[in-house]
Design goal:
Length: 284
């Protein structure tokens, strides 16, 4: 055996004749096709006259934009509707709150009116009782002074200052004046349950058979002017000047007077220190 027998040969293996013939046929056919196409191609070419329409992108964009605008408009309408609903709800809440406050106010006013009516009824009942009491006093006074009026000239020239010791016409005047305490003050009032200042003085003097002028200016000069330090029960007190007085009352003794003061206080009995008069006249 040769010493190189185990070394493989470096020569390429021989291709089979069939594969070689196949490859040569394929290559030949391909070249033949190219040659035929090259020869027939230029002679058979014709110009292209058909127009192919391609879909436009713009139409798609227009549809999308329209849909977006519609959606935006709908959103705006929804937001406007919601805003209207919110405004209506807020208005309704304010109206309800106002109605509640008005109801509370009316309820409080009703309660106050009822309380005022009750207080007024009680006051009127009390006043009626006082008037009944005064009417009784007046009846008693009229009966007791019926025979004393004619003897007024016989009374002492220096009557005591205490109303409890007053007699004759002065006693009648003082008693009548005191019986009206609590009556209302009404401008132009002449009784029997409402007076102004001069109306009360005139009515008191009428119980003694003396007819005084109606107004305070004339009453302040009717009689003899006397000092405030030398007063007697029944004297007429006045405020303002003699002949131009704006208020009058009756001195009832003990440094006090009775007068129809004003609409707030009515007819009262007060100390002269409460409202110091300007002067006084004595009629009796």
């Amino acid at each position: 055996m040769s010493h190189t027998a185990h070394i493989p040969s470096h020569r390429k293996p021989r291709q089979r004749a069939s594969k070689t013939a196949l490859r040569a046929g394929v290559a030949g056919g391909f070249l033949s096709t190219i040659a035929v196409a090259g020869a027939a191609g230029p002679a058979q070419a014709e110009p292209v006259t058909q127009t192919i329409e391609m879909p436009t992108i713009a139409s798609g964009f227009s549809a999308a934009a329209a849909a977006s605008a519609e959606a935006t408009q709908q959103l705006a309408l929804d937001m406007e509707k919601q805003a209207d609903q919110d405004a209506a709800a807020e208005k309704a809440a304010k109206t309800a709150k106002k109605a509640h406050a008005e109801a509370v106010r009316k309820d409080e006013a009703k309660k106050k009116a009822e309380a005022a009516a009750k207080a007024k009824a009680e006051e009127e009942a009390k006043e009626r009782a006082e008037r009944a009491s005064r009417s009784t006093e007046r009846t008693t006074l009229s009966a007791s002074t019926g025979t004393s009026g004619s003897s007024s000239s016989d009374s002492s020239a220096s009557a005591p200052s205490s109303s409890s010791n007053v007699s004759g016409s002065a006693a009648s005047i003082v008693a009548f004046a005191k019986a009206q305490v609590g009556d209302a003050y009404v401008s132009g009032g002449t009784g029997p349950n409402a007076w102004d200042c001069s109306g009360l003085v005139q009515a008191a003097y009428r119980t003694a058979g003396i007819d005084l002028p109606r107004v305070s200016q004339a009453q302040s000069t009717y009689g003899t002017q006397v000092s405030l330090d030398n007063l007697q029960p029944g004297d007429i007190l006045y405020w303002g000047g003699a002949g131009s007085a704006y208020h009058v009352a009756i001195y009832v003794g003990g440094g006090q007077f009775v007068g129809a003061q004003n609409s707030s206080t009515g007819t009262v009995q007060r100390s002269m220190d409460y409202d110091r008069p300007t002067g006084a006249v004595r009629v009796l």
